[in-house]
Structure to design on (215 residues):
């Protein structure tokens, strides 16, 4: 059963994420050394301005009302037991309801960000839906940041970062668990600014930004 935040969107079924399959257990172990040992901080640090993904730019042309947002002061979420359970439940529910499909299969385009209106989609579509549902549940926009990462093959992928008083947690269509960023197998590239969703900042170690997020 879908959470109230998802049901409020009027979507009987949700769409799919972009990735083809989750990283193997061995891949996760390799990717987590040494950050998982506590070397990396719990929260990612913004390094400077970054160019917004072309998918976000196009999304804002079609959903102008959702992108026409005034700047706000940064916020973090108090990640208590109640909030953690609600976030984890929402992540599982959205992941379970999605049938994976590429942008080419759905739209005939290399990159298109959209809500999973017909129950299909890829990674950024998961992220958009989770972000919207969590905001409708009362979480602040400034703590829900669309984030571009690279996977172990160097391909672009999109996840949702939840900024909390305990660190930056990642909601991912590739994993039902909500984990600290340093516990994931990804390279972190850029994400939305906390103050303005239309501004993007580079994060993590400097790396080449993928042109599209399709896995």
């Amino acid at each position: 059963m879908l959470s109230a935040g998802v049901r409020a969107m009027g979507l009987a079924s949700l769409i799919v994420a972009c990735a083809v399959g989750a990283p193997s257990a061995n891949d996760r172990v390799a990717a987590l050394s040494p950050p998982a040992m506590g070397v990396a901080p719990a929260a990612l640090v913004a390094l400077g301005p970054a160019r917004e993904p072309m998918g976000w730019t196009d999304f804002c042309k079609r959903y102008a009302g959702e992108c026409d947002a005034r700047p706000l002061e940064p916020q973090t979420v108090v990640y208590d037991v109640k909030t953690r359970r609600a976030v984890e439940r929402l992540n599982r529910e959205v992941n379970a309801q999605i049938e994976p499909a590429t942008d080419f299969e759905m739209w005939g385009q290399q990159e298109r960000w959209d809500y999973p209106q017909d129950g299909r989609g890829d990674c950024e579509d998961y992220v958009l839906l989770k972000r919207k549902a969590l905001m409708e549940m009362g979480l602040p926009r400034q703590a829900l940041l669309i984030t571009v990462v690279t996977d172990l093959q160097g391909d672009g992928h999109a996840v949702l970062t939840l900024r909390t008083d305990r660190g930056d947690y990642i909601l991912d269509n590739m994993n039902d668990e909500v984990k600290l960023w340093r516990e994931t197998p990804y390279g972190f590239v850029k994400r939305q600014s906390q103050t303005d969703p239309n501004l993007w900042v580079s994060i993590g170690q400097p790396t080449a930004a993928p042109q599209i997020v399709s896995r």
The domain at 4-34+49-203 is CATH 3.10.620 (C8orf32 fold). Confidence is low (pLDDT under 50) at residues 1-17, 19-39, 206-212.
